[in-house]
Hints:
Elements: E1 5-9, E2 13-17, E3 20-24, H1 26-36, E4 41-48, H2 51-62, E5 66-72, E6 77-83, E7 89-93, H3 106-113, E8 115-121, H4 128-140, E9 148-152, H5 162-171, E10 174-178, H6 179-189, H7 196-206, E11 211-215, E12 221-225, E13 228-232, H8 245-258, H9 263-278, H10 289-292
Parallel strand pairs: 1-4, 1-8, 2-6, 4-5, 8-9, 9-10, 10-11
Antiparallel strand pairs: 2-3, 6-7, 11-12, 12-13
Helix pairs in contact: 1-8, 3-4, 8-9
Amino acid sequence: xxxKVVVGMGEALWDVLPNGKKIxxxxxxxxxxxxxxxxxxxxxxxxxxxxxxxxxxxxxxSKGVNLMITEVPYPTGTVQVEFDQAGIPNxxxxxxxxxxxxxxxxxxxxxxxxxxxxxxxxxxxxxxVSRETINGFIDxxxxxxxxxxxxxxxxxxxxxxxxxxxxxxxxCNILKINDEELVTVSRLxxxxxxxxxDKCWILLGKYNLKMLILTCGINGSYVFTPGHVSxxxxxxxxxxxxxxxxxxxxxxxxxxxxxxxxxAEAHSLAVQTSAFVCTKNGxxxxxxxxxxxx
Length: 294
């Protein structure tokens, strides 16, 4: 790895549930799981100058995660989660919070210059400040063949636009998307009548991607590379919750590729990892050695 770093960048927040709060945010989940595979990782975000912000920093530090989390004069991000009578969650993601305002600092530029892989999403780009910081970070990353820029599409509420999605796909070389998001993106981009696999091939070619990862819940997952597709069924497990499962999938896959595994090997390990995370409560369980040492 030559002391290079794997970065998860974007939202750091609290999910406020009826029975209490849980730390959330895809970048933190991603970076935490990457670190479990023995790679150096870092969470980049922002929190408020408040108790909730201090608790996020303390919580992640206690898990051994490296942080570059700036304190800014905005409230720490929260998501109010309520459940309807059928148990379906409804989310209210508070706006103009700390992670909407991640500053691009000299320290962040220095981190970008030694970053081997970056994972970022669409949610953290809803505000121009964080969007410009993410773009500045990508621009400062090494331009060599081994650098990985992963765009993990995460469509939440109305916090995305066709322009942001197009720009992000143009800047990444690995796209991660789920089947529901792919339907929405296809509608936006103007090819709704084509089957899922053909949509993936179109995106792979249009944006000159190295890889496109498509997850389809219980219906398995695919990794498309030019001229080839890998498919893995989803293991049947006793599900505790699915929080963070997708982030752990991405982390395991990227860590495996960086450690020299083939796409098929990395895909298999990613599926095992996300299935294990589904059997545990919360997004950040300790992974067993048979996964992290595989």
